[in-house]
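Before we proceed, please read the two lines closing this message. Report back on whether the structure tokens fit the sequence:
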Amino acid sequence: DLGLPFVSFRPQYIYGPKSNKNDYIDWYFDRLVRNLPLPIPGDGTQKVSLTNSEDVASLLASVLNKEEAAVKQRYFNCGTDQLLTYDNVAHLCAQAAGISDYDIEHYDGTLFGKATFPFRLTDFYVAPTMAMNVLGWEGAKHSLKDDLSWYYQSYVARGGPERKMSFIKDWEIVVGSKSSFQLGSIYDKYDPIIIDASQAQPLDYKVNN
């Protein structure tokens, strides 16, 4: 209505320089470095796209190559065309952290929902095909596999391994949901189960012969 050219980009799951959210990838490292299971919903084959912020920037700048075509198309997906599964991300993060012994705990998302998992229960990715065809964007230059080495270093520098955390939702899935379990688990140091016995009374009972 204002007569101004307008183009909208729909980015998704961004990491890297100048990005303002680290939760997506940190979720994996938070558990790997503490030797905790990774509770992933479903069978872990759901696909996701994680895009380096520099690739996002180059896609946004590509609108200047063909301004009229961009305004005519109006809307563009903004992301990499390199898809990974949730389990793939776990394996790549473990490799970047130099961890070979780790456990993925697949769980029923219909029972627990997302819990603390950073992605959706289903596939969730975008295809940048329109930007490539209309704007001539050459595609992503970065890959998560190559980027995770420096990302892990930044995670350590940000104090990730020492950060105080609660894993009570993980406990509910990995331990508490089981038909039988014993008190005491790998989660106790993060979320200790405290039993107050200060009001306990002796049990008075008689055995009838």
Remarks:
- Helices lie at 23-32, 53-61, 67-73, 86-96, 109-112, 129-134, 144-157, 168-176.
- The longest helix spans residues 144-157.
- Residues 107 and 204 are 43 Å apart (CA to CA).
